[in-house]
UniProtKB/TrEMBL annotation:
Localization per record: Nucleus; Plastid, Chloroplast
High-level lineage: Eukaryota, Cryptophyceae, Pyrenomonadales, Geminigeraceae, Guillardia
CDD domains according to UniProt: SF2_C_Ski2
InterPro entries: DEAD/DEAH_box_helicase_dom, Helicase_ATP-bd, Helicase_C-like, P-loop_NTPase, RNA-DNA_Helicase
Domain Helicase ATP-binding: start-end pairs: 58-216
Residue span, Helicase C-terminal domain: 277-478
GO terms (BP aspect): maturation of 5.8S rRNA
Signal sequence annotation: none
Keywords: ATP-binding, Helicase, Hydrolase, Nucleotide-binding, Nucleus
Protein name: Uncharacterized protein
Principal place of residence: nucleus
Tree of life domain: Eukaryota
Amino acid sequence: SAAEPGTGKKQRVLHERCLPEGGTSDVTSKSASLDDTTVEDAAINFPFELDPFQTAAIDCLHREESVLVAAHTSAGKTVVAQYAIALAIKHNQRVIYTTPIKALSNQKYRDLGMFFSQQDIGLMTGDVTVNSEANCIVMTTEILRSMLYHGSDELREVAWVIFDEVHYLRDKERGVVWEESIILLPIQIKLVFLSATIPNSLEFAQWVANLKGLPCNVVQTDFRPTPLQHFMFPAGGNGIFLILDEAGNFLEDNFIKMMTLQDSRAESKTKGKEQPDIIKLVSFVADRGMCPAIVFAFSRRECEALALQTSRCKSLRLVGESQVLSIKEVFEKALQGLAKEDQELPQIQNILPLLCCGIGVHHSGLLPILRELIEILFQEGLVKVLFATETFALGLNMPAKTCIFTNCRKFDGQDHRWISSGEYIQMAGRAGRRGIDDKGCVITMFDEHLEPETARDILCGQPSPLVSTFHLNYNMILNAMRSSGVDPEKIITKSFHQYQSCISVSSTELRSKELEAEVSELQAPNEHDDREAEAFCELLELSNDLKCEISSFSTKPDVALGVLRPGRVVKVMEIISSSSSSSPTV
């Protein structure tokens, strides 16, 4: 463990170096000050002291080795990406920064342009291409995959590729894009993976090391710069209950008290003309100086409905008159580039009244210009409460003091289910601004069907492992056929899915051998008992065979119809035959 710079807080940093197949994993649990990894001739000097995990990751970049950086949201993973870009610029090389969504690409383009210079940063999305000759190009992973299949000349000068939010590889629909891109990238290009905490990070890094034939490092920490407190808000209530403290203790007594209060209110049925819960909760947060706040809802419709409902509360004032003027000024400047008829679109006209109340909405259905405008207003502190879908938590660097969940259940396209611990951690991680807030606050609106054990699993559970969702599709096959030197079969054999399957088979075979060894060691106490056991098994097998014969005969139509008469009782049973793999049912 190491002390965080400027504080007495301890953080544990694990640094492991995975070597290609045939080598060994060089485990180096870095500690304390990491003085031995002090970087000379730095590509860039940051105006703050680096955290131990950042120093360890930057040391890997200087060795020109790929690295996976796994840490909580807002821990500072972007520093590693910035250093990789600075290193490429220093050596007159190019770097590609990939993101899972366009919104994140746009924000990274703005942020990196402010950190470096606009001439060093370019952007490529399906809609826009800006400064494509820059040292660093920000793009979605789909665009990188397309470049790889087309054999783009731009890749010849690339030294580094940065995969932001690489845990998106587990996505059922789009995860395969990450695997294709990693497989198709030339081995001379080094990789930087930025990820939330994943339990099988070493497995992923070992796959990359085997795939490229070069070392791949894992630098991970469970340290959270701003500790979080997790509360729940009972329906119809006026206060919140602390359920999980900053030390990670689940307070079940508080949870039971909240459930009891919820049940008593439900029985009384005296709601009357009470304010809606969302307005109560937003007012509670605003009155206690807990803004800015992000309210996560799991559908666009709910986002817009809750934002509109909150904006109509006359007693709720989130922004002053001077801030309203600033909002209008930014809004008007943002729309200057639009044609007049576009400025009259209902979505654009309806958003301004919300913004003037200090309320914003963010989801994929918004026009790109409105999403960007709302992101800027939120960063400037002019939007106090932002209603967003979970895509907002996907890498966008916009922390808040408070995060609110309107529900613990979501529809995943097939069924309504409880959100996973990984999904909760990803969204809740937006609470707490490093260097500004001592603690972050997460509030969940209580669901009456939520049991203590389920709540514990969501709040305290481990993040989901990185599991491949690789699958063949027509797009992949057509791209491979059109590209020279790309064999779909080789992509399959090199995939993370194949690697995980081989590991699974190996462990199964090992377990099978262990069981076989246990069976071979089993011995009957003496020959007499052994003969009796054999005779019993033979009789049991004969009995089962006879039952099967009886069953087969009695279920013949001409026989069965003779005995199936009204008033008779039919007994249904299952007969398992040891001489057959089937289990006939009578």
